[in-house]
UniProtKB/TrEMBL annotation:
Carboxy-S-adenosyl-L-methionine binds at residues 91, 105, 110, 130, 152-154, 181-182, 196, 200, 315. Belongs to the class I-like SAM-binding methyltransferase superfamily. CmoB family. Homotetramer. This is tRNA U34 carboxymethyltransferase. It catalyses: carboxy-S-adenosyl-L-methionine + 5-hydroxyuridine(34) in tRNA = 5-carboxymethoxyuridine(34) in tRNA + S-adenosyl-L-homocysteine + H(+). Keywords: Transferase, tRNA processing. PANTHER family: METHYLTRANSFERASE, TRNA U34 CARBOXYMETHYLTRANSFERASE. The lineage of its organism: Bacteria, Pseudomonadati, Pseudomonadota, Gammaproteobacteria, Alteromonadales. It is an enzyme of class 2 (transferase). It comes from the Bacteria. Its EC number is 2.5.1.-.
Length: 330
């Protein structure tokens, strides 16, 4: 069974230690609720991932763990088959002992757009909200972060992350907890908080921004990446039913509206540092993710529109700083 004891030990003497008052019971409840179904099957696969200590690790420029030279052709094939049991792989790519996991998203492209604009992560404690399989967490660690914590409630994403970590090194200070941000107490502890590709899935975007704020120390940095539309400060798209075939998209603001939301939540130094239209090369079907992808979500006669007739996905990255607390806002 996946356990979180090493995480508890690592934070016992840190500024996250008061989290231990509630976290073990929360995760214990999560484990009990997943005793049946697919999680036990995936855990059996994880237990088969016994491979030599990687002869090379690169999280700075990509996510490369080990090389094909350490394994025989048969061992590589077995590894590929085991990792293939965790499909669909959506965020990546990963190179693990010569097995190339070509994920649906070229998440490295997003990282390359974001990284030049953020404060150095050297020796920082970082939270990645909605981290998926953890690809960006490894890149954050590669930038020198002291500790990286990701939260995402998906059991599949947890198992994908655990598969990578078990091969890379179990004791690395990078952890994924199967939680939603709403289950986190106000920690006021993280130097940097990332929320990338989450805001438009929240029924209350303002509550989400406040939850992000509650995780940051005063002066800490928020990196928010989300879908946006063109328009002014009063423009927000509320899809009637689905957006790009997704039924859980609630609010897509303009950049100006998003900036106002952040200022309303008492973030300061709010600035948009990047706007990018998602391309068919960045999100697509692969051998590791065989389901529908972006091309299927767009109007086949006009890829500037979704199949529902809304503007095609455009993403903005906003950087902001947590200001001094305002007791009246609380």
């Amino acid at each position: 069974m996946i356990n979180f004891s090493s995480f508890y030990q690592q934070i016992a003497d840190s500024n996250l230690q008061h989290w231990l008052e509630d976290l073990p019971s929360i995760l214990g409840k999560w484990q009990r609720s997943h005793k049946h179904g697919t999680l036990p099957k995936w855990e059996k696969v994880l237990n088969k991932l016994n491979y030599p200590t990687p002869n090379t690790i690169n999280f700075k420029d990509s996510v490369i763990i080990g090389s094909g030279e350490q394994l025989s052709a048969g061992q590589q094939e077995k590894l590929a088959n085991l990792l293939g049991l965790f499909q669909p792989w959506r965020k990546g790519p990963f190179s693990i002992h010569g097995v190339e996991i070509d994920t649906e998203w070229r998440s490295d492209w997003k990282w390359d757009r974001v990284k030049p604009h953020i404060s150095s992560l050297e020796n920082r404690t970082v939270l990645d909200v909605g981290c998926g399989s953890g690809y960006h967490m490894w890149r954050m660690y590669g930038e020198g972060a002291k500790r990286v914590v990701g939260v995402d409630p998906s059991p599949l994403f947890l198992c994908q992350f655990e598969a990578v970590k078990r091969i890379a090194g179990k004791d690395l200070p990078v952890h994924l907890l199967p939680l939603g941000i709403e289950e986190l107490p106000p920690l006021d502890a993280f130097d940097t908080v990332f929320s990338m590709g989450v805001l438009y899935h929240r029924r209350s975007p303002i509550d989400h921004l406040m939850q992000l704020r509650d995780q940051l120390r005063t002066g800490g940095e928020l990196i928010l990446e989300t879908l946006v539309i063109d328009g002014g400060a009063d423009d927000v798209l509320v899809p009637i039913d689905r957006y790009g075939k997704m039924n859980n998209v609630w609010f897509i603001p303009s950049v100006d509206a998003l900036v106002l939301w952040l200022q309303k939540c008492e973030f300061i130094d709010v600035k948009c540092v990047d706007i990018d239209t998602t391309s068919l090369a960045e999100q697509r079907t692969t051998q590791w993710m065989k389901n529908e992808s972006l091309v299927d979500y767009l109007d086949p006669n006009d890829i500037s529109l979704t199949v529902e007739g809304y503007p095609a996905p455009k993403r903005a990255t906003i950087i902001a700083t947590k200001s001094q607390p305002n007791l009246e806002l609380k």
